[in-house]
Amino acid sequence: MHRLRTTVSRLRPLTAARTAQSLPPPLPRPPAATDGGLRTFQPARLLNTPLASEPFLNGTSSNYVEEMYYAWLENPRSVHKSWDVFFRNVNAGVPPGAAYQSPLSLGGTPPTLSGPQTAAGAQADTQRLVEDHLAVHTLIRAYQVRGHHIAKLDPLEISCVDFDDTSISRFVSGFYGLAESDLDKVFRLPKTTFIGGDDGGLPLREIIRRLEVAYCQHIGVEFMFINDVEQCQWIRQKFETPGIMQFTEEQKRTLLARMIRSTRFEEFLQRKWSSEKRFGLEGCESLIPALKTIIDKSSESGVESVIMGMPHRGRLNVLANVIRKELDQIFCQFDSKLEAADEGSGDVKYHLGMYHKRMNRVTDRPITLSLVANPSHLEAVDPVVQGKTKAEQFYLGDSEGKRVMSILIHGDAAFAGQGIVYETFHLSDLPSYSTHGTVHVVVNNQIGFTTDPRMARSSPYPTDVARVVNAPIFHVNADDPEAVMYVCNVAAEWRNTFHKDVVVDLVCYRRNGHNEMDEPMFTQPLMYKQIKKQKAVLQKYVEKLVGEGVVTMQQYEEEVAKYDRICEEAYTHSKDEKILHIKHWLDSPWPGFFTLDGQPRSLNSPSTGLPEQDLVHIGNIAASVPEQDFTIHGGLSRILRGRANMVSQRVCDWALGEYMAFGSLLKEGIHVRLSGQDVERGTFSHRHHVLHDQNVDKRICIPMNYISPDQAPYTVCNSSLSEYGVLGFELGFAMASPNALVLWEAQFGDFHNTAQCIIDQFISSGQAKWVRQNGIVLLLPHGMEGMGPEHSSARPERFLQMCNDDPDVFPLIVFTPKSLLRHPEAKSSFDDMLPGTHFKRVIPDDGPAAAHPQNVKRVVFCTGKIYYELIRERKNRGMDDSVAVVRIEQLSPFPFDLVKAESDRYPNADLVWCQEEHKNQGYYDYVKPRIRTTIERSRPVWYAGRGPASAPATGNKQTHLSELQRLLDTSFDLSAFNFSS
User: Fold this and answer.
1) Residues 742 and 733 sit within 8 Å (Cβ to Cβ)
2) Residue 510's closest CA among 520, 502, 500?
3) How far apart, in whole angstroms, are the C-alpha atoms of residue 59 and residue 54?
4) Would you state the pLDDT for residue 765?
5) What is the rounded CA–CA span in Å between residue 827 and residue 825?
6) I want to staple 723 with a disulfide (CB 3.0 to 4.6 A). Which of 113, 198, 615, 754 is the partner?
7) CA dihedral 398, 399, 403, 408 (to 10 degrees)
8) Which residues of the chain fall below pLDDT 70?
């Protein structure tokens, strides 16, 4: 009885309403049948009957009764005899309140159907029996829903989880209606459990014991929020089946060997470099066998490539013992005298990535493992890994994720605290972003640097964010390696069965401070007093295995000595390394991309012109609807006619020019992927790459996929309302192959700052830190058009500041137009696109001023939309022959040679840089010193534009126009900068 009281008191009572919420959806209605008259009964007869009319149903959920009824329809023997009698009597027309009849006993003969029994004693006994039966069902459900609340998850036994569950600490007498005398009663269990008993049932005492084993030991399972009955049943079977968590002696020895490697690696680093930061794994050494178990199980299911992302804690151990990076390459990173090679500035050792193909020794199958480089920004790598995984799946034709998968390792504080985790989860089931399931492993050391969970999150668990996508969450005590191994097997099997995300929460601790130099007792004295007394997990596990007779202490010591020798030999060899080659740490190399026939290949752009027949063909596709009986919007018909007219006139606007660029690449077999918010239509309704049938829901047509029978596929996909997550995803996608055009377009260029972390940490500095080449293209709509401070500037100054003017720099940032999308003069002739033509880094003035350069008084350098306002103003002022306007189309790398040629062309002219952006923004600070370098500082470079400001633009239309007019006046006032006059 004490055990019953203790167990029940720890499980929060379920009210009738909460019980209803926890029940699975009702079973599907079976087809009508005639089975001795049993199945002619309509459900409304029962379900429309007030439950209060049946005393024994008082407080019982109608969903529960409905579930029992449909089970009875399928098989009358599948429910308790009392339910069978009840349903038969209702079917026979017995009035409400009298339908229930008691069976004589659990093993007795069912009562006859001649009429309801009316004996008060028999009815009371029957009511008690049904109440007990329902109480047991409720108790089972309580374990399934809340068993994890009382599971022994914390190795320190101080518990970071607070459920504010006061009822757990005391017994609520009579809630379940079960007494000590009921412990030996036998109860038949519902088909939704797997704890055993078959048709003969189990004593309540054994039911409770088995539920305790399944849900309240070192594993806590959160899954009852999942709204798929099949998935819930799959999880129940994995944890409720008695004796299911069993391992062979060979499996236990393998697990021990992995624990030895994980533990001794950290101890070796501590002995050799005690004063070096390494962000070791002490306290969660079971992470290594956890990851290897996931990889083994996935390889067994056919996975050939695993792409991983993680923060810095434990990275060196993962590189050494999971990816199997050469130990001497890891150890040489600790040498302060190591010289950097030419590839880049490099990064700290616990940020680097790795790419390795090897045989999986457990499955004897080849496996490719990739760990993506990641800065200190913890979860920033999450979407990058997902994008890289999606790309590899795409290029392999792996449409279901059976060959390529991702594993993400998280810290508990970051998993709960960083919004990019949520953004990445919300990409997980979107058609153009899904990687068909990710295994998330949380290293839950119950602290974030110096912040404990009470101050770091508002949810009980750090993993609660995963519930938004119905991902099951398996909490496990990391000091129980076998429980960890079992949970990881289940997680990998879940991913390979349902192709959905799953979370493994390794509840552990951090033996040292945030890093090896940190003193944690300053802020967590009680926790670290407990940690100092904590026996290491390897020591506990080897004692367990020796006690079981699986290994001897001598065998254990020999295995330890063997790995220690491996480390020592690698340490000796590491001293021979004199130069750090970052290229050895690439997470996805591009072999052969930077060479051609063994020689370095220039990254300068070759001619990109096309034969006119190709331009006409692609233009006609852009103006057509290739599918039959497809009704488009009337306004779109006008747009397509306009495209056809431009093709006939041999000109392109921006949208048609983009179509030409994409279409020609696709025709050559190069994949194009365009992603971002509203990119299918285009924010400014200019693109229309996806056509929608006006009469058939969800029917679409993508004309770009009709260019050629053997073309590459075109992927154009509207994204979720995320910049950080989606740009990270596309960056990862672009990592996988250099022979693709991957573009991300911001809804407005201003909004890229929500993804600034990806730009700063991966795009601008990735090559220097990690030799991480990437071909991502950012399309950022930009232009000061009076639309306010949040819809004007893509902040070009930020990108220019991050550039290093390397002529081989990647990637490409394109400040795209808004009003110019429909500007009548913003068009190009087919003549500029024919074979032999190139991208124009600088576009010279081709008007009257260029014909008589000696007469020109001023050269106005500019870029972007302001050009069209300048030439309009110049014409209005009649100054076409005295002012030249030169466009710098490529800002970085700066076209020094062409700018010099243009400035030399006009020897008598003032040089002015004009921009519509404010003086402390835009391009001025970048271009002025570079223009002066080209002219050897022989002439000043004046400024015409808006004055300094803190905001990118005014929100007042009239103010915007007056500012524009002032900068135009300054540009064309020939006396403005003539100090000698």
Assistant:
1) yes
2) 520
3) 10
4) 80
5) 6
6) 754
7) 120
8) 1-70, 73-74, 90-123, 160-177, 199, 338-346, 578-584, 589, 591-605, 806-810, 978-981
CA distance 700 to 404: 29
Q: What pLDDT is recorded for position 772?
A: 73
Q: At what angle do helices 287-300 and 249-272 cross, to 10 degrees?
A: 140
Q: What angle do CA 402, 405, 409 make, to 5 degrees?
A: 155
In 95-196, at which residue ranges do the beta strands (DSSP E only) sit? 186-187
Strand partners, 914: 944
Exposed, middle or buried: residue 142 (CB in 10 Å: 0-12, 13-18, 19+)? buried
pLDDT for 873: 96
User: What is the Cβ-side half-sphere exposure of residue 962, based on CA atoms within 13 angstroms?
Assistant: 6
* DSSP state letter for 401: S
Backbone angle region of 546, left / alpha / beta, with phi > 0 → left and psi within -120 to 50 → alpha: alpha
Q: Angle at which helices 553-574 and 249-272 pack, to 10 degrees?
A: 40
Residue 193 confidence (pLDDT): 85
Supply the DSSP symbol for 448.
B
**Which residue is it, tokens 């996988």?**
736
Q: What is the value of pTM for the model shown?
A: 0.85
Contacting residues for 262 by C-beta, under 8 A, at least 6 apart: 281, 285, 286, 287, 288, 289, 317, 321
Using CB atoms within 10 A of its CB, is residue 36 exposed (0-12), middle (13-18) or buried (19+)?
exposed
Here the tokens at position 398 are 């792996």
> What pLDDT shows up at residue 762?
87
d(CA 442, CA 506): 6
Cβ neighbours of residue 136 under 8 Å, at least 6 residues apart? 178, 187, 189, 204, 207
Residues forming a β-bridge with 913: 861, 943
Collapsed DSSP state (helix, strand, coil) of residue 733: helix
List of domains in the chain: 2-152+201-216 (no CATH), 249-585 (3.40.50.970), 612-782+817-828 (3.40.50.12470), 841-972 (3.40.50.11610)
Contact present, 934 and 763 (Cβ < 8 Å):
no
